[in-house]
Amino acid sequence: MKSNDLFKGKKVLVVGLAKSGEAAARLLHKMGAAVVVNDAKRYDENQQAKELERLGIKVICGHHPLSLLEENLDLVVKNPGIPYSNPIIKEAIHRGLSVVTEIEIASLISEAEIVAITGSNGKTTTTTLIHEMLKTSEREPLIAGNIGTVACEVAEKATSSQVIVLEASSFQLLGTEQFKPKVSVFLNLFDAHLDYHGTKDEYSLAKAKITANQSKDDYLVYNMDDPIVSKIANKSNATLIPFSVKQRLSKGLCIQQDSIYYNGQSIISLNSIVLPGAHNLENILAAIGAALTVGARLQQVRHVLQTFSGVEHRLQFVTEYKDRRFYNDSKATNILASQKALEAFEQPIVLLAGGLDRGNDFDDLIPSLGNVKALITFGETKDKLAKTAEEADVKTIVYADGMQEAVLAAFEKSEAGDVILLSPACASWDQYKTFEERGERFVEAVKSLETTLQS
């Protein structure tokens, strides 16, 4: 960790706990900052706040009093999930206070270089691939962010010989000012989280902050096939490493002669790659570019691509039962992610989809529903998804209340040779705390299917 004096004596307000808020509060307190924590959850129900208070940190729970901004604050650290429309955050910005997320703290204190990955879809897979590709290099990789440990916890212990592989969301990136990764990876940009950002332009601006402070000594690995990502890349000061699955490139990463090429060198044949889904080629190209840039061994890159079959909740193969193959893609929390999942299969699909209603429609999903023979839908968006399925001429539509019921209905509407796919195209928060919980309920329902059918 860089100098302990960076935040010494600074007055810092941490708004919102969860994992990132608690980690930031602990670290800043340890570094000598005068920390006040403010969380909406009542004190008597707030174990995190009680533990921080025992460390000597002042905690204010149950509401967000604007009076907390009247204490000559130097900094506000915001939990990424708290919207900027929150009155205390809105007022802090109005008063000209710096409002950041904890990845900003991580980047300021980290001795290790950071490889940061963002995009609307594929972040977790790409982050995991890069981490695995770096494992036998001289740069010991540490995984952080939305996947793994909170970034500032990792940065506190990281050394200059290591590299932090950081999955970064738009929520986190929007709260950055000096964030400067050694390598940025920008996968794609699609309408997502508009309930948080308001417009696609604002969402795009948040994502673009991943490269905003980079210089020519830094690198931006970017998707040349995405026009918005390319436009952002062309404004970056970083050294550009493009990738494309559609074009042949003399510099950067592309597909030609059924192999992946990097700067004209053949890296691996497509037949050797085990990760399913054409959409994962983009993630693979991005991961290769980033990993090799920070010292991955080519032999390890190839080994990972020949053995890595996916991450949990992202097109995760669960089991085969009665000649049906079950896949858990619970991390598909937007339309683009579900499009990619649906396009990964040639077999007939029974699709389980639905969840939190963010106000969008699902018309963009229609072209990807050609192989869907039945839709099992649930959650707040079930009526919208049913209407979309009707327009796509899906023959069978079933409403389900819970995951057990949905899995049973999916099996009953399927035949031997079918794929049964959970790919919700929606966030999980109407019925589940996280997409992980939703995926776990799906896996449990699948694994108990034989017992259910016998009862």
From TrEMBL:
Reactions catalysed: UDP-N-acetyl-alpha-D-muramoyl-L-alanine + D-glutamate + ATP = UDP-N-acetyl-alpha-D-muramoyl-L-alanyl-D-glutamate + ADP + phosphate + H(+)
UniProt GO cellular component terms: cytoplasm
Mur ligase central domain mapped to chain residues: 117-291
Chain ranges of the Mur ligase C-terminal domain: 313-426
TM segment ranges: none
Single Gene Ontology BP annotation: cell wall organization
Binding residues annotated for ATP, in chain numbering: 119-125
Location in the cell: Cytoplasm
Pfam families: Mur_ligase_C, Mur_ligase_M, MurD-like_N
GO molecular function: ATP binding; UDP-N-acetylmuramoylalanine-D-glutamate ligase activity
Entry EC no(s): 6.3.2.9
Top-rank EC class of the record's enzyme: ligase
Biological or metabolic pathway of the protein: Cell wall biogenesis; peptidoglycan biosynthesis
Keywords in alphabetical order: ATP-binding, Cell cycle, Cell division, Cell shape, Cell wall biogenesis/degradation, Cytoplasm, Ligase, Nucleotide-binding, Peptidoglycan synthesis
PANTHER family in the record: UDP-N-ACETYLMURAMOYLALANINE--D-GLUTAMATE LIGASE (PTHR43692)
Family in the record: Belongs to the MurCDEF family.
Biological role stated in the UniProt entry: Cell wall formation. Catalyzes the addition of glutamate to the nucleotide precursor UDP-N-acetylmuramoyl-L-alanine (UMA).
Protein name: UDP-N-acetylmuramoylalanine--D-glutamate ligase
